[in-house]
Design goal:
The complex is a heterodimer. By secondary structure, chain A is mostly helical. Helix content of chain A is about 75%, strand content about 5%. A two-stranded antiparallel ribbon of chain A has the order 1-2. In chain A, strand 1 and strand 2 form a beta hairpin. In chain A, helix 6 crosses helix 7 and helix 11 crosses helix 12. Chain A is globular, with a radius of gyration of 19 Å. Chain B is mainly alpha-helical. Chain B has a domain of about 260 residues. Chain B has a two-stranded antiparallel ribbon. The chains are: A mainly alpha, B mainly alpha. At the A-B interface, helix 5, helix 10 and helix 12 of A face helix 5, helix 6, helix 12 and helix 14 of B.
């Protein structure tokens, strides 16, 4: 019983991490249909921004232990990778709309360059970010101990989803975004600067990847190839979830997370991954457009 | 065109370059050093992989990121045989290290070379056919196909690492010393392997070329350009696409099987996610939907890699990144496509109509659009 409860929590925790790294893709891939293979590298950039932030500002902001810097690093990672994303959209992706396979290859090239840049600046070996002291330990919930780090990630994901929801549905910028993604010509005709919306949307997706990178520093050491470990999983989440909807991404991340953990509990990590893959392909036989499909008119 | 002389001339312009290059490659062992020949042989196995990828991506419009997986399957199947042969009946060393007492059941038939070679062809064929059937049946297209093939590659490579006692884990299958009774260290054996690679590459090139010019090839291009119309005309895109996927998988597998004896080792690193995408850049650089471009691209990129990556690893990585961007943004037709375009333009200036023999092969998907505009 306790074992299953623990696996359930692990599943939700894994799901929240998957969701964290897929939220950015829900923007670039889900809304814009741009497949960004450099997404993993944006995550990596976010992680290194956190690392730099720790080294430069931690002492100023009351030391590594206090962890005020970590909260600020989340914003810094978002802004830095977001700007990087906007530059990439304006400089490259803009010219490749309607050519998804070419976009895939070009962004993979960008990923290679970013990886090598990280290697040149920080060196190939992994570096460690020290987590704030208030995130060590765990909450004693009767039968199990829930680590604060995991709870923090779950809470942060919930906050992000809420923020995205508000942005998309309650702000003028979000309304413009939805308008452009639903009917570009009409939106342009009504005076929305669709080019700018494209850049901003892609930048948002990149920025969310940056936050994911920041969070991943809590889980383990970071290195130039950090992103490649997660990118395939993130894309599977978006494929299962279906494009064009945040709800699908959330459900898919949680389902994959829980299934992975539960199967892993009774077999091995590899078998779990393989079985989840088979289930995703089988599910797509039944609903090729994913869990929550955007209705096309 | 009806006269015999004309027919012969057409044949010469058509196959002439192929014959010339074939002869050059066959004579290469006489001039190249042992080391360079081995390197060239290795690159030619990559060229075989690239031809398969060109069929599915260039002609079929399906970007498979799983070619590394099939390359690895072929390589592992053949390496299993070589390992048993090299061991001379003893248990493979990594199994001993993992505390295995006897050969696992699925390893045993690989002692037979015929079985191993058959598996190199049948194994990937079955995997690709099953995956292809289910993926294409549910009309998963474009980047979704790429993502799924990529995920499968990742899973297989993780599995190989995880099953240390059966697969050799991270190290892979090492210390291969003989092939069919010949020592792999013997230069004569390596020349033999090189020549076999050239001949197999030639055969596969001819078959691929005939395939693209056949009725099936036209259907494949038609499916790439407008799948719905092909379906409405009564053909089955699922069959066409699955068949192509299986053919490309077998090409990759054969390349892998020829790769192993020339390198003497196979590890899961060779069939990971990143090497699978690297295979795509070979075709992109050479020029997609040209076949010969796949070969040229595989040779160029790998030659560049071996020339620069050891001396300037940093620069090479940046260059590779730039190559990906440049290949789709600036030179979507690749080396061969650009060459052909320049040739056609030059021919037009000389007041003779440009030869449009490859017209049906011009890619229309993706970046191909750009090429069409230029040609028009």
């Amino acid at each position: 019983m306790v074992g299953w409860l623990a696996q359930g929590f692990n599943g939700i925790s894994l799901g929240s991490i998957l969701l964290m790294i897929s939220l950015g893709l829900a923007f670039s891939f889900g809304l814009m249909k741009v497949i960004n293979m450099a997404h993993g590298e944006f995550i990596m950039v976010g992680a290194y921004v956190t690392y730099v932030f720790q080294n430069t500002f931690a002492d100023m902001l009351g030391g590594v232990e206090l962890g005020l810097w970590f909260i600020l690093a989340i914003f810094a990672a978002f802004i830095f990778t977001g700007i990087l994303g906007i530059i990439l959209e304006i400089g490259l992706i803009r010219y490749l709309y309607g050519r998804p396979l070419d976009t895939l290859l070009a962004t993979f090239g960008v990923g290679l360059v970013l990886q090598q840049a990280a290697r040149s600046i920080f060196g190939a070996p992994n570096v460690q970010v020290v987590s704030p002291s208030w995130l060590s330990g765990g909450l004693n919930a009767g039968l199990l101990i829930l680590p604060y780090k995991r709870l923090f990630i779950i809470a942060l994901v919930i906050v992000l989803i809420w923020a995205i929801y508000v942005y998309l549905n309650r702000t003028a910028a979000g309304r413009r975004l939805r308008a452009v993604m639903q009917n570009r010509e009409m939106a342009s005709a009504l005076g929305v600067r669709s080019r700018r919306v494209d850049a901003l949307t892609f930048g948002l997706g990149a920025g969310l990847a940056g936050i994911a990178g920041c969070v991943l520093t809590l889980i383990g050491p970071i290195g130039p190839t950090l992103g490649t470990n997660y990118i395939v999983d993130a894309f599977m989440v978006v494929v299962l979830g279906g494009t064009g909807s945040l709800l699908g991404t959330i459900m898919a991340a949680l389902i994959i997370g829980v299934f992975n953990s539960v199967i892993e509990f009774s077999t091995t990590a590899t078998v779990a991954k393989a079985l989840v893959f088979v289930m995703i392909v089988a599910f797509l036989q039944w609903r090729p457009t994913g869990l929550v499909a955007q209705r096309s008119r | 065109m009806t006269s015999q002389k004309n027919g012969f001339r057409t044949f010469l312009t058509d196959w002439g370059p192929f014959i010339i290059w074939g002869v050059i490659l066959l004579l290469a062992p006489m001039v190249l050093s042992e080391f360079r020949l081995n390197l060239l042989g290795k690159f030619l196995t990559f060229a075989i992989v690239a031809i398969g990828l060109d069929l599915i991506w260039g002609y079929g419009g399906m970007l498979s990121l799983g070619q590394g997986l099939f390359f690895g399957l072929g390589a592992y199947f053949f390496a299993m045989h070589l390992k048993l042969e090299s061991g001379g009946g003893r248990l493979p060393d990594f199994m001993v290290w993992s505390g295995m007492k006897e050969l696992p059941l699925f390893w045993q038939p690989f002692a037979s070379p015929v079985f191993a070679i058959a598996m190199v062809i049948i194994g990937p064929l079955i995997v690709a056919a099953i995956l292809g059937y289910f993926v294409f049946r549910s009309r998963i297209q474009g980047v979704y196909f790429s993502i799924i093939t990529q995920a499968l590659t990742l899973i297989v490579s993780i599995s190989l690492i995880g099953q240390q006692p059966y697969t050799g884990g991270t190290n892979g299958i090492t210390n291969l010393s003989t092939i069919f009774g010949h020592s792999l260290a013997d230069p004569q054996t390596q020349v033999g392997l090189y020549l076999s690679t050239v001949i197999i590459l030639g055969v596969i090139y001819i078959l691929a070329r005939l395939l693209t010019r056949s009725r099936f090839g036209r259907l494949l291009v038609a499916t790439r350009d407008d799948e719905a119309r092909v379906r409405f005309l009564g053909y089955s895109p699922v069959t066409i696409k699955t068949t192509t996927f299986a053919i490309s998988a077998v090409c990759a597998s054969i390349g892998g099987a020829l790769f192993v004896p020339q390198v003497g080792i196979i590890s899961p690193a060779a069939l990971d996610v990143v090497p699978s995408i690297m295979m795509v850049i070979w075709v992109a650089v050479g020029g997609r939907a040209t076949l010969v471009g796949a070969v040229v691209g595989a040779l160029l990129v790998n030659a560049g890699q071996s020339a620069f990556s050891e001396q300037f690893p940093n620069v090479w990585q940046y260059f590779l990144g730039a190559l990906f961007v440049g290949a789709v943004l600036l030179f979507p037709q690749g080396v061969v496509g650009t060459y052909r375009m320049a040739f056609a333009r030059w021919g037009a200036r000389g007041d003779s109509a440009p030869v449009e023999e490859e017209a049906p092969e011009a890619p229309v998907t993706g970046s191909g659009r750009l090429m069409q505009e230029v040609v028009e």
